[in-house]
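Please check both lines for our workbook:

___
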Amino acid sequence: MPSLPSRGVSAQPSVSKPSSAPASDPGRGSTRAAGIVGLAVMCSRVLGLARDQIFSGIFGATSGADAFITAFRAPNLLRDLFAEGALSTAFVTTFSKKIQLEGDRSAWRLANKVATLTFVFMSVVTLLGILLASPLIEVLGGGFHAVPGKFELTVELTRIMYPFILLVSLAALAMGMLNARHVFGAPAMASSFFNLGSIVGGVALAWWLDPGFALEHIDRALVGMAVGTLLGGFLQFAVQLPALSKIGYRFRPDFAWRDEGVRTILKLMGPAVIAASAVQVNVMVNASFASHQGTGAVVWLNNSFRLMQLPLGVFGVAIATVTLPLVSKAAALGNTGEFRTTLAKALRLAFFLTIPSAVGLICLGEPIISLLYQHGRFTIRDAHRTGDALQFYAIGLAAYSGIKVLAPAFYALDARTTPMNVSFATIAINIALNGLFTYVLGWGHQGLALSTSLTAIVNFAALYYLMRRRVGDLESRNLLVMFAKLALSGGLLAATCLLGQWLLLEGYDHFRLYEKIFGLFTVIAAAAGVFFVACYFLRFEEMQEAVALVMRKLRRRGGGQTPRVR
C-alpha cells in the first residue's frame, strides 16, 4: 500500500497549539465546515448574480458590455494565476505545516514575510498591466477592432481596473491565513463585500457620470462601474482584517525573504503558476475566439458561466477550501489512510451535490436565464443565446468541482509538477476543440462552452488516475456505487424537470414575472423533492449526514439531547 512520507514528526519540538483545531472526525468536521463555507459562498454567488443582472439590465449584450467584461478579465487572469490559485494553495499548505510542526510564532513570522513580498510584487505587476494594457487586449479581444471604438474602450477600462489584482492578492493571503487556522466563514463572506461594493459603488458612480444610462454616453457609465470594481476589491480585503486580528495576527513589514518557508512557498508556487498559466491560456484562447463571434457573444458566455459557477462555488469550492488544510495535515504527518479517506469523501460529496445541479441546469437552463436576465436591455434573443451556452457549460460542472478538490491535494503531497503537466496537455485539446466546434462545425459560442466542459472532463480524469497511482485506491467502489445511485435519482430529477417544463413553462418567454417565478420555482421544488426523497431511500451516506445534522440542530433548539451520529 502506498504511504505518505513522514516529514520529521518524530523529532517534532514542543509547540503551542493552534487556537482552533479541526474536528476529530475529518469527514464529519469537513462536512460541517463545508456547510458553513457553502452558505457564505452562496451569499457571495447570489450577490454576484445580482451584480450580473443589474449590469445586463443596464447595458444589455452590447459592444460596451463586451468591452467591460473583457477588460475585467485581464486582471482576473492574474487573480486566478497568482492570488486565489497558486498563492492561496501554496501558502495554506506551507502555513498549515508550519503551525503543526513549529507553532504559531514561527507561522506568523512567515505570514509577514509573504505579505510584504506579495504587496511589493503585485504592485509591480499592476504597474506593468497598466502600461501593457493595449497588447494584452490585442490578445483577449482582437476581434473588437471590427466595431469602431470598442477596442480603445476596452483598453481604457483595463487600465482603470488593473489595481484590482493587488487588492485581491492581499485578500487571498488573508483568506489563506484564516483557512489554515480553520476560520472559514469570514473569508468566505469577503467576496460578498466585493459584490456589494461593485454593485452599490459602481452603479452610483455610473449614474453620476451618465444620468439615465444613455447609450450615447455608455463609456462614461462603464468607467463608473470600473471604479466601483476597485472599491469592491478593497472591501474584500478590508473585511477580513478584524478576523485576522482576532486570531492573533499583527502585520509587520518584513523584507527578510531569504527564508526557508518563503522558499518553500515559491517552490510550490512555481509549478502552480505554470499549471494555472495553462488554464489561463485556455481562458485567453476562449476569449479570443469569443471576440470573433459577433457582438454579445462575450456577454452570453460570461453570464452563463457565472451562473454555472453558482453551484460550483457553493459546493465544489467550499469542499475544496475545507479539505486542503486537512489533507495538508495528513500529508505532514505521513498518514496515508486519513489523506485518502478525506480526499475520497470530499470527491463523493462534491459529485453528490454538483451532478444533480448540472442535470437541473441542462434541463431548465433557458427558463432560468429568462427569469434572471431578461429585463432592461437584455432581450429574449440574448436570454436564449445565454441559455444555450449554459446547457453546454453544465456538462463539465462535476468535473470542475472534482478538479477543485484534487489539484490542491497534489501540492500537499509535494507533487507539484503533476497538475502543471496535466494542465498543459489540455491547452492543445482546448484549442483543437474550439477550432472544430466554431469554425468547422459552426456552433459559435455554444461550441466554446462545450469545448470548455470537455477539456475539464479530460483534466479531471487525468488527475484522478494519477492520484490513484500515487496514494492508492480512492474508495473507487464507493464512488461507483454512488454514481449508480445518482444515475437513478438524477434520471428521476431530469424526468421531473422535463415534465414540469412541458406542463408549466411552455411559452415562458412571454410570461409575466410572477408567472415565471411561480412556474420555475414549482418545477425546481418538485424536482428537488423527488431527487432528495430518492437519495434518502437509496441510503446516500451524504444525504444521511445532512438529515442527521438538521435533526441535531432541531433537537438542540427544542432542548432535547444531542444524538450521536452513527
Observations:
- Residues 5-27, 560-566 have pLDDT under 50 and may be disordered.
- The radius of gyration is 23 Å.
